[in-house]
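call fold target=Aldo/keto reductase family protein
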Amino acid sequence: MDFRYLGNSGLKISEITYGNWLTHGSQVENDAATACVRAALDAGISTFDTADVYANTKAETVLGEALKGERRQDLEIFTKVYWPTGPGGKNDVGLSRKHIMESIDGSLSRLQTDYVDLYQAHRYDTETPLEETMQAFADVVRQGKALYVGVSEWTADQIRAGHAMAKDLGIQLISSQPQYSMLWRVIEDEVVPTSEELGISQIVWSPIAQGVLTGKYKPGEAPPAGSRATDEKGGADMIKRFMDDTVLERVQKLQPIADEAGLSMAQLAIAWVLQNDNVAAALVGASRPEQVHDNVKAAGVRLEPSAMQAIDDALGDVVERDPGKTAETAPQTRPV
């Protein structure tokens, strides 16, 4: 496993980071989820990312149980706050001081730890003053409940404003967690340059485009049984933007490039996002331990410029690059 600094901090994280978004507590039984975490640890992954909203807090509980007994100093544990949790009361959502201060305590209890290494704003809250949010994050850090703070799916302007307030408050906003893959490059024109300027790294989710970049979805064919595209608990909704025959046809053209590089299609996709110097880690999930073992082989891989160009040529105009998509896909009001 290779390790990279997160932002301009001294914190090193594994460049393959294990995430339990759509699996733990929902799609995968707890024993299987624990086996995947053990496989990640055995493969050298030390960084684990979750969120309170995943399976309505169950994912944090599963991860806490799976990591129990590990030396805490050897791990980097990340979680997030914003989306509705619990019974969905009027204050069980957003980035108000009340929700943040209550949520961090709940997350720490479920994760069975005294602190998280990174506490992230899971989206931007349009209904809470940014000053209130950042002050609450600063207090969480000063209380020793989080070491650093980050954001997820914020625009470049939002990141700049949040970073400035964090600096004034004496805390470090060091990370951004956006969607990023060969097919979804909306961060490249604005978020990445702003982050590079401010000393912020990307921890990217869905580097395999919810499984599309593995090549298992074939144009003109029904999705394989049991795949994410058939999961009505959330997977099918997230993947549908890529389930277009033109996209799937282009993705099939990546197979010879992967073969030439000696990689699987999934490994090629993960290695591709890690070529971006502003990316500190690629988030990967798993429903089976063998998926973990396959994904970690992308660590430390350097793709030749010719391979990077061949990928661009193969995908062509199906790549989404519009930086406005970050704001367009963000909640305009707090979800209920």
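return ok
Residues 257 and 306 are 10 Å apart (CA to CA). The mean pLDDT is 92.
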